[in-house]
Design brief:
By secondary structure, the protein is of the alpha/beta class. It has helices at about 40-45, 60-65, 70-80, 95-100, 160-165, 190-200, 220-225; strands at about 1-5, 20-25, 30-35, 55, 90, 110-115, 120, 125-130, 140-145, 150, 170-175, 205-210, 230-235, 240-244. The chain has one domain (about 1-244): Ribonuclease Z/Hydroxyacylglutathione hydrolase-like (Metallo-beta-lactamase, Chain A). Helix content is about 20%, strand content about 30%. α6 (about 190-200) packs across α7 (about 220-225). The chain is globular.
């Protein structure tokens, strides 16, 4: 299984960058996790929009779905230009019907509601969900393929259920929107100290900090998280790839 970071900024993308978007590849299947602002532009450095096999959405805040519309139009236009490819499945929760219905567009994309209480099979991937603590319905994901596990926290303040959900994951891709001296619970986000404690208790092998803040010295997030977590830790970066 291969993870490639497409975008990693929280809230909105920095100049020439992208907010949340992560590409998972296994056995030739291309799965995009979240599709925030700037993701489609950046994605085309790796593969074309018509080459995606599926998209999986954690929640409907703009920094996670802003480029769904442009992805739909990209595939529509490529169809007009003569390319043939199947309708793209976009998996999302149905707790916000207004946003969920937008996942279906003509015969270009089809919105499919996942049941967060059941395991979802998408291509070679098995996905388990955990409802997060965020101002809107949002789901973390434990994604398994080829005997490896990636956990994506999506957006959330810390909750104890994360520990067992993430136990022994090969990679924990965890939001870290606040520095250690800040309190992120009211905003539905974690700080670096909490993330480090979470990763240590869950005994994950590698921690990648993502959904990063737009201020401060980002390297301090690693220093702070490392005071709690003794494993491998790094900041998410554009086109960063992890092969498991």
């Amino acid at each position: 299984m291969k993870l490639t970071v497409i975008g990693f900024w929280g809230g909105y993308p920095k100049q020439n960058a992208a907010s949340s978007g992560y590409l998972l590849e296994h056995e030739g299947f291309q799965l995009l996790i979240d599709c925030g602002s700037g993701v489609l532009s950046k994605l085309q450095n790796i593969l074309q929009p018509e080459e995606l096999d599926a998209v999986l959405i954690s929640h409907y805040h703009p920094d996670h779905i802003a480029d769904i519309g442009v992805l739909q139009h990209a595939r529509l236009i490529q169809g007009f230009l003569g390319k043939e490819f199947p309708t793209l499945s976009i998996y999302g929760h149905s707790f916000d019907q207004n946003e969920f219905t937008k996942l279906t567009y003509k015969k270009v994309t089809k919105g499919i509601a996942y049941n967060p209480n059941e395991v979802l099979t998408v291509g070679p991937f098995q996905v388990t969900f955990l409802k997060t603590d965020h101002p809107v319905p949002c789901f973390a994901m434990r994604i398994e393929a080829g005997g490896k596990v990636i956990v994506y926290s999506a957006d959330s303040s810390f909750k104890e259920a994360f520990i067992e959900f993430s136990r022994n994951a090969d990679v924990l891709l965890c939001e870290c929107n606040f520095y250690g001296h800040q309190f992120g619970k009211a905003a539905g986000h974690m700080n670096s100290i909490e993330v480090g404690q979470f990763a240590q208790k869950a005994a994950v092998k590698q921690l990648i900090l993502t959904h990063l803040p737009h201020y401060g010295i980002l390297a301090e997030l690693i220093t702070e998280a490392s005071s709690e977590f003794t494993g491998i830790i790094m900041l998410a970066d554009e086109f960063q790839s992890i092969l498991l």
